[in-house]
Fold this protein.
Amino acid sequence: MAQKTKLYYFDGRGKMESVRWLLAAAGVEFEEEFLETREQYEKLLKGGSLIFQQVPMVEIDGMKMVQTRAILNYIAAKYNLYGKDLKERALIDMYVGGTDDLMSFIMTFPFLSAEDKEKQRALIVQKATSRYFPAYEKVLKDHGQDFLVGNNFTWADVHLLEAIFMVEEKKTDVLSGFPHLQAFKTRISSIPTIKKFLEPGSQRKPVPDDKYVETVRRVLCMYNDIKAD
Amino acid sequence: MSGKPKLHYFNGRGRMESIRWLLAAAGVEFEECFLETKDDLTKLQKDGSLMFQQVPLVEIDGMKMVQTRAILGYIAAKYNLYGKDLKERALIDMYVEAITDLNELLMTHTFQPADKKEQHFATIVDKATNRYFPVYEKVLKDHGQEFLVGNRFSRADVQLLETLLMAEECKPDILAKFPLLQSFKARISNIPTIKKFLQPGSQRKPPLQEKDVPKLMKIFH
């Protein structure tokens, strides 16, 4: 009997969302325990489940894994979404690194003041349209294939799709200069596991709101100010 | 015949230092091209070498690799410093990602404004001695082996050593309460390739001095 995969995090996107996307893309069922109170978090800490005292934490294959990148690497490799050799892996890691950097601008967004939010929104759009999207548009244009790496569906495709959706939430027509990315988005969204994840009722989390911010601050006792980049 | 890997960065540690450590640990010779001015960076950006307009850039095996993690992952796997299977890799990744978090704190210390420096220093010491070092001390204590993962030298050992040394530069007695980390440090430092890298004249870079910060800002901002 296979062990269940269980995610420990807040009921919201944050750093766990990429893990949800990847598990869903791989067709892997998972459970979730949502941190609502400080007491729950302290219980996890005292029980030794969080080796660096942080979430995300994912119970998978008998391990209590922490560190988002470690978790994602493991899942990608286990479910054959990490390319067929070292060089494909290198490309995937490069591409994922870029989308990760792009999404990190969005990660702090909910915690900013209203004024800083507007500044950050402009920064996100600027970075997306002048640095990141052109890079992926070029990759797709140059090889003319359906997927980013090795003519096969990989983690890089999942991560880019996630990033595209997140940036579009900040500016709906942000893909207008990128025809290959538009086609990519349609194509990857139609993959059955992804399509299912995009439907209402899935474990995909909505855009973070004030309630999410309040929960995170309360659980982590994180009341210091976060500034825009 | 493939050429040596070529590193493009400024003449200092920053995000390239972990790459220098890993190549050195693997016994791989490499060349370096130092960015001295903003024009040097602009030139690389314009000629399409930098996928995301950023350094580090490492030319290796016909690829122009960017993104520090990607570069480190490739080198580690190529030179068998990434564990023997998925589960060892998972442990190595967990350990290395946390070390990277601590490294980020150490790296940004020189850039802190004067009024934030003391607070930042306190944060570094607190995180190092209460969050990170206890974990690695316990790992070594629990299995009693010489290396962090799989009883074999891996990138996790290299990156931990790098960080321990950087932390000591920040506060010389920071390892006082961690006897196993102290012996780990001595042991890993004695590995021939590492020993060589720790000697004067190697490609290891010194800590960033405050006087060098303005020049750096000119290149990157």
About this structure: The domain at 6-79+198-220 of chain A is CATH 3.40.30.10 (Glutaredoxin). Chain A touches chain B through 28 residues (CB under 8 Å). Chain A has a mean pLDDT of 96. Strands of chain A lie at 5-9, 30-34, 57-60, 63-66.
